[in-house]
Amino acid sequence: MSVYMDPMSPQTLFLHLDCKLYRGDRPCRMLRLCEGCSSYDPMGRRVLIIKLGALGDVVRTACLLPGLRETADPPHITWLTSKAAKPLVERMPGVDRVLEFNAETLAHLEMENFETIISLDKEPAPAAVAMRVTAGKKLGIGLSRYGTVYPLNDEAHYYFRLGLDNDEKFFGNKKSYPELIYDALGMAWRGQAYQIVPTEADRTNALGLFAEAGLEPGRKLIGINPGAGHVFAHKAWREDGWVEVIDQIGVRRPELAVALLGGPDEADLMNRIKAAAKTKVLLPGSHYSLGTFAALIERCAVVASGDTLAMHLALATGRRSVAIFGPTCQQEIEMYGRGVKITTPIGCAPCYRRGCDKTPNCQELIPAAQVLDAIVGMMKDEI
Prior knowledge:
The chain is α/β, with parallel strands linked by helices. It contains 14 helices and 13 strands. It has a six-stranded mixed sheet with strand order 5-4-3-6-7-8. Strands 10-9-11-12-13 form a five-stranded parallel sheet. Strand 7 (134-143) and strand 8 (149-151) form a beta hairpin.
């Protein structure tokens, strides 16, 4: 859309307000005014994705991007997310604009118009945004006048029901999260993958950290992310199991390097594992940006972890993944043919319990030999 501002002025200003390059508060990168510009690139259809939730959930929601863009008229995509997740969304191919969830953003979103809003969080705040922003079509989750969430369209009913029905979520559902959200939006699921592309600065930082940790150039690398947050009981596999796996990798595949990867909350855990292991373990720190974390994972041939952000980043960067599942739903994870799932044999899983005193627990029943065989098996074609 092109508009004339202040038509009564002797100096009329012509603006392409819908141009992807237009900024308003400063020159665009073409360094020219709008009128007569050959680089005018209108936004066309506009889609707003609202996804603030857990970092891993944000990453895997990127599977929608190739589905939205495979049409003859790809939309301009705005993604509203949390401050923590913004660096991840900024590295997703296909997102035109990333907005942080805050009061300033909400103020101007209420003035905008979209063709479609996709709202996937089942919490009041993001659902409220979906209700307040103008759009021709709203899909996913909305907020009622009672302050409670509900499905906005018929296709989203099953996706919504899984949050209310534990039996269906834990035992009835056989679909992965990508398939569930495609169904919820009335889109065709054809195995579309999610992707994160680290920047060159991310990759340079990662290579520097690995070099400081002692990684020799060209050496094949296995990444291990031993933590899994503190929300669900026993989501992380046992510490002594990781030590055993690392030592056995040193015996069976001594030409491979092993690195411990994780954030500040996992620093003590990683230090203990490194100290206990007889095999040399690389530890490239624990205080780095999410972009650098993605690049560290991208450098690995295989990443072994629990049901964590590291698992999703491995899949998003095209790495192979060995993922260990205790209390969470393994069927909701789409491995895209690049991973192995190891699930606990305990009868009460999945459960999503925040506390558990069972002995042995779900993670204690997963033997180190099973994890080791999965990792070595994924590396069988690596020389």
